UniProtKB/TrEMBL annotation, chains A, B:
Name of this chain's protein: TetR/AcrR family transcriptional regulator
Keyword Glycoprotein: no
DNA-binding residues (ranges): 30-49
Single GO MF annotation: transcription cis-regulatory region binding
Domain of life of the organism encoding this protein: Bacteria
Amino acid sequence: MPQIRKPEKKEQIKEAAARLFRDKGYSATSMRDLAEAVSLKASSLYNHISSKEEILREICFENAHRFRSGMEEVEQAQSTAMAKVEALLRLHVRTAMEDATSVTAFNDEWRHLNEPFLSEFKSLRRDYEQRFRLILLAGMEEGEFRQMDPNIALYTLFSSVRWVYDWFQPGRPLTAANVEDELTAFILQALRP
Amino acid sequence: MPQIRKPEKKEQIKEAAARLFRDKGYSATSMRDLAEAVSLKASSLYNHISSKEEILREICFENAHRFRSGMEEVEQAQSTAMAKVEALLRLHVRTAMEDATSVTAFNDEWRHLNEPFLSEFKSLRRDYEQRFRLILLAGMEEGEFRQMDPNIALYTLFSSVRWVYDWFQPGRPLTAANVEDELTAFILQALRP
């Protein structure tokens, strides 16, 4: 049996922070809570990370860059708008299932970033949304998608995967592959003419 | 011009609390924050409400009862599964647009309820979900909906309206009626065979 590699401490800290931010809220989470969650003394935690602001920043920007890379890959592919949206949707669903930190960036905690990071993060989000919107509009123009307000399509699509993080646990009773396939099919059908 | 009726102070307090819980998190919101948000002295706030726990409880149960009433009305109607799901979806979208407190009950803040209220709230949620699931299953059985995992359909449908509260502002550029119609049509198309 291949051995499962233990995630690096830093990754553990980020995952734990993302869960604490969700459960207690960012403001109410202390470095002490975080140290306890990863079984470190507060003093040792500072060897890995200087503040909770730093963790939030890393979580938000890592995820923003992950989605930007996904978008770049999709834009370079010679494929239909439908295939592009499918690839991006699969990225959203897979990310929500595999990485607890992603939900922090997707959802509300990014609001706690300080400037200039807040503006930079918002600008990355706007850019991602705009590129996604252009794919939707191209698909409507080509008749691959039905005519609808592109913002409603876009935000509904982003929102539709939000439950996955709260609810999904592999194998009970659905596998990750089931959820990815069914959720992707659901949204693609909603877009068709 | 008809005068717009000023909402009761209690309603204002609940709306302000719902926004603070979302922005700062429930744990980090103090009665002082809440008093400031509704321009009251902390001492006057206590004439309206005894604790933030009480507000959270009222918000959660009012919304749970609103959705239960909607479900009862829908169940009693002699209509197709498609018409039932449409009526419930419209209730979800309209509620998200009209009432800022609803998002608190929909989303994460209910986790902060104390017992026995937490268990009671979870049981109301489970009951609502189960009744909604039965409508979806009946629709699949009748061939009105395509065959899919009912949980994926259910949670995707609930999640899909979550953006409305964050993003929607009447008339810029979409009206509430536009959003309700388009979002409902989007999800209904996803369910069709």
